[in-house]
Amino acid sequence: MAAKALSFDVGDYVVYPKHGVGRVIELQRSEIAGMQLELYVLRFEKERMTLRVPTNKAESVGMRKLSSDKTMREAMETLKGKPKVKRTMWSRRAQEYEAKINSGDLVSIAEVVRDLFRADDQPEQSYSERQIFEAAASRLARELAAMEQVDEPKALERIIEILRDAAAIYNKEKTAA
C-alpha cells in the first residue's frame, strides 16, 4: 500500500485502459475480506457499465486522467500520417492492434485508426478489421469528445474527416507514381 494513489475527484473523466473514457461517480468505502478499501466508482455510459477500482490500484491498472492537449494534438497528427500495414498474418496484426487499443495510449490508438481506415474508393474491410477499426475510433472519439466537451458522433466525424483528407493525399501519390 506504499504506492501513492492517483487522486481523482467525483465528476472527473478518467481513462481506464481496457474500457476507455469513464466518469468517477463516487468514492466508496467498503469492507472486503476484513479489509477497509477505498474505491473509485466509475461509470462507462456507452457500455452501461459500472466499475469499482481500489484507489491504491488505480495507477497500477493504468487508470489516468484525460490526455493533455499536446498528446491529443500528437494523436491527431498521427491520423494524418501514411498508413503502415505490415505484411504479417492478420491474426498477428489483430493481436497487435488489440494490444494498442487496450494500452490506453492515445497515440497508439490513433495509429490503429489510421492503419485500418478505408476511404470510400478503397477495397472493403473484412468484418474483423471493421470491428477493430470501430473499437479504436470510438475509443479515440470518446476521449476527444470528453476533452472538447462535444458529443462522441461529432468527435468521430472530425476524426473521419482528418482520415479522409489524409487518404486523398496518399491516394494521389499512388496514382501519380
Describe it for me?
- Pfam families: CarD_C, CarD_TRCF_RID.
- One of its GO terms (biological process) is rRNA transcription.
- This is CarD family transcriptional regulator.
- The protein is α+β, with helices and mostly antiparallel strands and about 180 residues long.
- The chain has 2 domains: about 55 residues, Thrombin, subunit H (Beta Barrel), CATH 2.40.10.170; about 110 residues, Up-down Bundle (Methane Monooxygenase Hydroxylase, Chain G, domain 1).
- Helices cover about 45% and strands about 20% of the residues.
- The protein contains 5 helices and 5 strands; from the N terminus they run E-E-E-E-E-H-H-H-H-H.
- Strands 4-3-2-1-5 form a 5-stranded antiparallel beta sheet.
- A hairpin with a 2-residue loop joins strand 2 and strand 3.
- The termini are far apart.
- The N terminus is likely disordered.
Give the fraction of residues assigned to helices.
40-55%
Name given to the CATH homologous superfamily of the largest domain: CarD-like, C-terminal domain
As laid out across the biggest beta sheet, the strand order is 4-3-2-1-5
What's the end-to-end separation, in Å? 60 Å
Number of E strands: 5
* Cα radius of gyration in angstroms: 19 Å
**Main sheet properties:** 5 strands, antiparallel
Q: Give the ordered list of helices and strands.
A: EEEEEHHHHH
What spatial form do the alpha-carbon principal axes imply? elongated
Strand content: 15-25%
* Number of helices, counting only DSSP H or I runs of 4 residues or more: 5
Fill in the CATH topology of the largest domain. Methane Monooxygenase Hydroxylase, Chain G, domain 1
